[in-house]
Design a protein that fits this description.
Blueprint (H helix, E strand, L loop, with lengths): L2 E5 L4 H12 L5 E4 L5 H10 L7 E4 L4 E4 L1 H11 L11 H29 L8 H21 L13 H16 L7 H12 L1 H10 L21
Parallel strand pairs: 1-2
Antiparallel strand pairs: 1-3, 3-4
Length: about 230
Amino acid sequence: MSLTLYSHPLSSFCHKVFIALYENDTPFTSHLVDFGDPDSTALLHRLWPMGKMPVLRDAARSETIPETSIIIEYLEQHYPGPVPLLPNDESLRLQTRLWDRFFDLHVQVPMQKIVGDRLRPENGKDVLGVADAHASLRKAYALLEQHMANRHWAIGDAFSLADCAAAPALFYGSIVEPFPAAYGHLNAYFERLLQRPSFKRVLNEARPWLAIFPFKEDVPARFLRDN
């Protein structure tokens, strides 16, 4: 098998790439990265010195591709499937990239700040930083409530790269900073993402690992059952 994804089933950024792979039934091997294992960590750093997951290795093309959006665009270019994740129209393609960045930078990043702080020792907590991260999530949710008012998916009628980014970002974001009940458009969009077969598969694979998620006590019961 040509493609190997170095990843972890609990990682939100890995989820983004898993969704893209599952959307198109792209054959690949999943290689578990264990940061508790020095050899596993060293291998990841050899592949990508920044040491961030996921990383895609394409043996057939002798290519190593880091960074989620770049991985998905690489797959689109070299291993296209029946579900195009970037539209042909240049204007829509730009919008797709915009909302992909939005979910990564304005939902994923503050969510990870909150989760990461839970792992810090008591004398190392960043109280102000966490408060700012919660405020950033609330601001992002308010914008998404407006943006999704007349859309089925993030850029319209077609599932795209932006939705691959949205699903895991909103999944973990909804745990650390729940959506306001009054945000009907955002809540409905999230429910559509949860029903997408590719994301269902991702969550089923992540479920055994949720026991080590730092906010495991806040995970809604419905996410702890197989779908």
